[in-house]
Design brief:
- This protein is α/β, with parallel strands linked by helices.
- Helices cover 44% and strands 17% of the residues.
- It folds into two domains: 2-124 and 244-289, 3-Layer(aba) Sandwich (Rossmann fold); 126-241, Rossmann fold (3-Layer(aba) Sandwich).
- The strands form three sheets. It has a four-stranded mixed beta sheet, sandwiched between helices.
- Helix 1 (2-14) packs parallel to helix 9 and helix 3 (64-77) crosses helix 4 (88-101).
- The structure holds 6-O-phosphono-beta-D-fructofuranose.
- Residues 87, 111-113, 155-157, 207, 240 line the site of 6-O-phosphono-beta-D-fructofuranose.
Length: 307
């Protein structure tokens, strides 16, 4: 997110537009926590994880009263438009603000989940998956030295984009994602087949999988195949922090520039994305309303390579 903030502030400066940072997300907007930002205020942040503006999930902003307060604050501060960085919740709030108060908002897709339609990648996804794969590689050392079956749970809310990418990159034997209904029997059969030629296996489980979290799945498999020496690791929030990858820095920089230039051109009510290396815009209602599809070919590739 910092790389995006830097890009927004510097692009605005380049075009002679003033910017303020809204501190603490929508709560900060409701409470008028604004901080004027110039190009030097965003120095040395491109390499930092998190957000210099801080963030929060705001309950008050979900209410019409909260959004009315926010609109008043914007008017008092003379702010003409907002660049909102986030995912589903952020854009739902942005859409409501524009419908109820005519607020001009443009969105940047900032979520590790990569679950927004209208962009190939969301800001944070590449870094999160790199971090997760680094951890999984380390777990692999124990799995193979001790002949163990590991179930590793990754984030992704109700989608499996993180899980699928990590499974492929870490050479996992199997992946369980919410987009694909796989019975425990199917997993057990695959593991059984694999166990004839290898002694250790890694199964990546998306946190939102229908069969339950990694602990539940490990228990169910153990009930069927008692001989497995199973272990479970939940990677959790370590996937969300850390210095951003090159891909994320470049993505966020390009998107930040595009957001400001679109606003100057009079475009708002949309999310900026990058599709096939081209900057695009997608109306908020489509970005959040349309479910992004998993690339089935990645599942096929995983199955071929997991022999
Ligand atoms: O949406 C990003 C995400 O990291 C999800 O993958 C995860 O389910 C959720 O946020 C965790 O949210 P919190 O930090 O509020 O527990």
């Amino acid at each position: 997110m910092n790389a995006a903030i830097r890009a927004v502030v510097r692009t605005a400066h380049f075009h002679g537009v003033r910017t303020s940072g809204i501190m603490g997300g929508y709560d900060g907007l409701i409470n008028g926590h604004f901080r004027e930002l110039g190009p030097r205020d965003v120095s040395n942040i491109i390499q930092r994880g998190g957000t210099m503006l801080r963030s929060a999930r705001s309950e008050e902003f979900r209410t019409p009263e909260g959004r009315a307060k926010a609109a008043d604050r914007l008017q008092q501060a003379g702010i003409d438009a907002i660049v909102a960085i986030g995912g589903d919740g952020t854009f739902t709030g942005a859409l409501k603000m524009s419908e109820e108060h005519g607020t001009k908002v443009i969105g940047l897709p900032g979520t590790i989940d990569n679950d927004l339609a209208g962009t190939d990648l969301t800001i944070g996804f590449d870094t999160a998956t790199n971090t997760a794969v680094e951890a999984i590689d380390k777990i692999r050392d124990t799995a193979s030295s001790h002949d163990r079956l590991f179930f590793i749970e990754v984030m992704g809310r109700d989608t499996g984009f993180i899980a699928l990418r990590c499974a492929l990159a870490a050479g996992a034997e199997y992946v369980l994602i919410p987009e694909k209904l796989q019975a425990i029997e199917e997993l057990s059969t695959a593991l059984y087949e694999g166990s004839r030629s290898k002694s250790s296996s890694i199964v990546i489980v998306a946190e939102g999988d229908e069969e339950g979290g990694a602990y539940t799945i490990a228990r169910k498999v153990k009930e069927r195949f008692d001989h497995y020496d199973t272990r479970v690791t939940v990677l959790g929030h370590l996937q969300r922090g850390g210095s951003p990858s090159v891909t994320d820095r470049v993505l966020a920089s390009r998107m930040g520039v595009a957001a400001v230039e679109q606003l100057i051109a009079g475009v708002h009510g949309v999310m900026v994305g990058i599709v096939n290396d081209e900057v695009t815009t997608t109306p908020f209602h489509q970005a959040i309303g349309k479910r992004k599809q998993i690339n089935e070919d990645l599942l096929r590739v995983l199955a071929i390579l997991a022999v």
